[in-house]
């Protein structure tokens, strides 16, 4: 189903290209594992099992990890009201709605399809934003769902997850070999896994930064209020500094799905591997949209 969110050929091209490269990487990775002597049954279970689990259980895992609960319209009338309005404007299915009881001001969307998606906000962001700002954030998140980039990002992480899993197995000597070649096989698996993880890490981060700019743009155009989204970004980014670092680090694995990063790489080399574009770049884009709309 096509929504009324502004199309983004650039996002589509990047998602297609990234998925092709990661798919090719995954196939080569599995082929190398078979070539160096790992059990074909083990490799097949790993390849198919992780792909299915990432696709099917992504929403359940994300909500559980954040300690979020689904809420009804009676439990959260304002939140449901905003999402109802945005879904009507965008002509898209309404996702499930969830709230995570944490002070970190953030939001994310996940799910394997627009019909099986969920939008989650934290109690921290509900306390800090007014209705227009919250609408801007939710419009941004619904754009991710409408463009199906949540599904793409979830599946794109499979190669990295598999590589990380095998890296840990190789380091702890759990590859299931007990002859004189055990050490060589373990080292080969470790080397290949680290390489695959590094490549998939860079590719997914590049896509993640672009998808955030695309969601900002589509969300602002749908509501016609880019300044509200800009204010929300500034509030969330500023208030994030008051959250204990240990809490931010515990949420860091979800950075690629958050409205704003729990931890930022700043101006260092780490910013090249950031999941989100710099705040200044996002605000600059919203300012241009505001000028175009005359708002």
Describe the protein's architecture and organization.
By secondary structure, this protein is α+β, with helices and mostly antiparallel strands. It has one domain (about 10-295). The chain contains twelve helices and four strands. Strands 1-2-4-3 form a four-stranded mixed β-sheet, with helices on both faces. Strand 3 (about 105-110) and strand 4 (about 115-120) form a beta hairpin. The radius of gyration is 20 Å and the shape is elongated. The mean pLDDT is about 80.
Brief summary:
64% of the residues lie in helices and 6% in strands. It is built from twelve helices and four strands; from the N terminus they run αααβαβββαααααααα.
Main beta-sheet strand count, sense and barrel state? 4 strands, mixed
Give the helix/strand class. Answer: alpha+beta
User: How many strands appear in the DSSP assignment?
Assistant: 4
What is the helix fraction of residues, given as a range? 55-70%
Identify low-pLDDT runs: none
Radius of gyration: 20 Å
What descriptors fit this protein?
single chain; 295 residues; alpha+beta; 4-stranded mixed β-sheet; 12 helices; 4 strands; 64% helix; elongated
Sequence-ordered SSE layout with sheet pairings:
Elements: H1 9-35, H2 40-56, H3 58-66, E1 68-70, H4 77-90, E2 96-100, E3 107-111, E4 117-122, H5 123-128, H6 131-146, H7 149-156, H8 158-171, H9 182-223, H10 226-240, H11 245-251, H12 279-293
Parallel strand pairs: 2-4
Antiparallel strand pairs: 1-2, 3-4
